[in-house]
Amino acid sequence: MEFTPPLQSATLIKRYKRFLADVITPQGETLTLHCPNTGAMTGCATPGDTVWYSTSPNLTRKYPHTWELTETQTGSLICVNTLRANALVKEALLENRLPELAGYTSIQSEVKYGAERSRIDFMLQADYRVNCYIEVKSVTLSEQGSGYFPDAVTVRGQKHLRELMSVAASGERAVLLFAVLHSAIDQVAPARHIDPRYAGLLEEAQRSGVEVMAWKASLSATAMTLTSPLAVNL
Predict the structure, then answer these.
(1) Mean of the pLDDT values across residues 80-103?
(2) Domains (ranges, CATH) in the chain?
(3) Could you give the CA distance from residue 120 to residue 111 in angstroms, rounded to a whole number?
(4) Is 99 left (phi over 0), alpha (psi -120 to 50) or beta?
């Protein structure tokens, strides 16, 4: 996935109201960016970090600039735009670059399913194969080389695990895919210290037949793509 037009850089002043961030450009101009991330963004939004942002062609938007990447002061690169995770996974699915999920002939997005009226990120289908339901979660919280999800208590994420367990119990294929969007992460684990309920449900989900996998993105200010499978330690 290439960033077109190219991203521009600035220095982070502060993130506030969850969805907004002020930055200062190399020319000294202060801009307010849209922040497409509802999480805590721990370690991803330190004042002084370099921010890479995109600009919408629709300049009538109240906030036409969108925060895409953070380059930390320790040299890590992080994609903070959570919408990019699904786009990366879809690109990889279409190109059959994820061996565990290759060979399907139909890829549908945002399909309604489950008793709790959820929408699955992707449903894969093929003749003579059971349907495959994939829920994608982006991982950006890094602690000493390990990536943790979630970075804040997630009732919605807990619901998604229950729905995936129901899918697995019905005999269809259920997959939780962690898209790792932080260059310093080498393995993934549930954030038991943040959301113990989610961590417990994730262990239960795996025992119930939900497949849990993680793929890391190769990141730069010009492009990014899923490239490497990582271990998930439950």
Answers:
(1) 96
(2) 8-79 (2.40.50.580), 83-232 (3.40.1350.60)
(3) 5
(4) alpha
- At residue 59, does pLDDT exceed 80? no
Of 94, 60, 88, the C-alpha closest to 3 is 88
Q: CA 152, 153, 159, 165 torsion: positive or negative?
A: positive
d(C-alpha 192, C-alpha 200), whole Å: 8
pLDDT more than 70, % of the chain: 100
Q: What pLDDT does 118 receive?
A: 87
Region 124-144: what's the mean pLDDT? 97
Encode pLDDT of 41-52 as tens digits.
999 999 999 999
Report d(CA 138, CA 154) in Å as an integer. Answer: 13
pTM: 0.95
**Rounded to an integer, what distance in angstroms lies between the CA atom of residue 125 and that of residue 133?**
9
Q: At which residue do the structure tokens 């890391």 appear?
A: 216
